[in-house]
Amino acid sequence: MKKLSSFVRLYEPVEVVGGQQPHPKSDLAAPKLILIASWMDARDLHIVKYITQYQSIYPTSKILLVKFVFKELVFASFTREVVGPALVYIRSQIDSEILSLSPAQPEILVHIFSNGGSATTRTLYQEFQAQTNHTFPLHVAVYDSCPGVYSFSTIYNVFMASFSGFFARLFAAPWITALVAWFWVWYRPLRILSGEDFLSANSRVHNDVDLVKQTTRSYIYGKADIMVDWKHVENHADQAAAKGFAVRREKFDSSPHVAHMRTCSDRYWMIIQETWEKGKMKSMTSASQ
């Protein structure tokens, strides 16, 4: 993949790079662009499994990967810096009329992983509108293990995931407990000073009909996920449906956080393809307004 920045990568099929026209049938059926917003500090060896599968299913599609790193949790402005090159690329595709600003049918498939990917796309939606005075182009979305909201246990589990081994976890536990407690105080009793927290912003923006235009979205989540409570995901899906978004819910019983593909690959990719096909058939007039 071509490196656009330290956190943004681009894959272009050989036919596109060489200037040849892809097969007409494939071109009509596939997304023109697949945007992957990965989970926090995702390793390349894990991300590549999704990219290679997308290359197999949609060989004519371009793939834009945007990573999320821990620093973005601390400095919100850094997320805007991270998504900058991705935004420049998407706008260049629109300016070149490869993508449409107001397509009759979606041309982009957005695949969002965890709260990190939710923050990436939330910032992308906000920055796109701020720069163009237009909502992000109509698209189809898949939410994998997200979005979550603040709870002590899930945030604690997120931080503890960085520590392996009994003694490392034993040493880290009191410090992580204190850190999560500090977050709660800062974003709850002291909210007048801190402003909206990271997770609440994700949840709000992804259901904001003035910022997000989707023909359909699917939520893929699991009861065994200890980092994002499945009930929080279902609550977000309920809110989305109430606002007019076309919602599909797919609950996995035994797979942990962002591991649903590993648990049942066939089911996972069937959901992806069916979500795209359903969303592709819908026009802008039938999308949420």
List its salient traits:
289 residues; alpha/beta; eight-stranded mixed beta sheet; 50% helix
Shape summary: globular
Q: Could you give a short account of the major beta sheet?
A: 8 strands, mixed
Strand content: 15-25%
What integer is the average pLDDT? 90
What count of helical segments does DSSP give?
Answer: 13
Low-confidence stretches: 21-26
Sequence of strands across the biggest β-sheet: 1-2-4-3-5-6-7-8
Report the oligomer.
Answer: single chain
- Rounded to an integer in angstroms, the radius of gyration calculated over CA atoms is 19 Å
Question: N-to-C SSE series?
Answer: EEHHEHEHHEHEHHHHEHEHH
Helix content: 40-55%
Number of strands: 8
Amino-to-carboxy terminus distance: 35 Å
- Overall structural class, as computed from helix and strand content, comes to alpha/beta
Tell me about this structure.
50% of the residues lie in helices and 17% in strands. It has 13 helices and 8 strands. An 8-stranded mixed beta sheet has the order 1-2-4-3-5-6-7-8, with helices on both faces. Strand 7 (214-222), helix 11 and strand 8 form a beta-alpha-beta unit. It starts with a strand and ends in an 8-residue tail after the last helix.
Describe the structure concisely for a colleague.
The protein has about 290 residues and is an alpha/beta fold. Helix content is about 50%, strand content about 15%. The chain contains 13 helices and 8 strands.
Secondary-structure topology with pairs:
Blueprint: E1 2-3, E2 8-11, H1 14-17, H2 24-29, E3 33-40, H3 44-57, E4 62-68, H4 71-74, H5 76-95, E5 108-113, H6 114-132, E6 139-144, H7 152-160, H8 166-187, H9 191-194, H10 198-206, E7 214-222, H11 230-242, E8 247-252, H12 260-263, H13 265-281
Parallel strand pairs: 3-4, 3-5, 5-6, 6-7, 7-8
Antiparallel strand pairs: 1-2, 2-4
Helix pairs in contact: 5-6, 6-10, 7-8
